[in-house]
Amino acid sequence: YPDPGASASALQALSKLTRHDVDVKALLEQEEEIRVKMREMMKRTMETMQKAGKEYEYTIPALYV
Prior knowledge:
The chain is mostly helical. The protein has helices at 4-18, 25-59.
């Protein structure tokens, strides 16, 4: 997935080397948005998996479990 936080870190390091200020505020805001969305998606995934129960595990070939 995209990682604006890593991009911000890289830009901050380059900024120090080149002595040019780079505003990374927008990247850091995007990082937080993505983190929240990923957390919500993971929560929904876990809820869906719990609802599916053990029956679903037996319908998938063992290779994918």
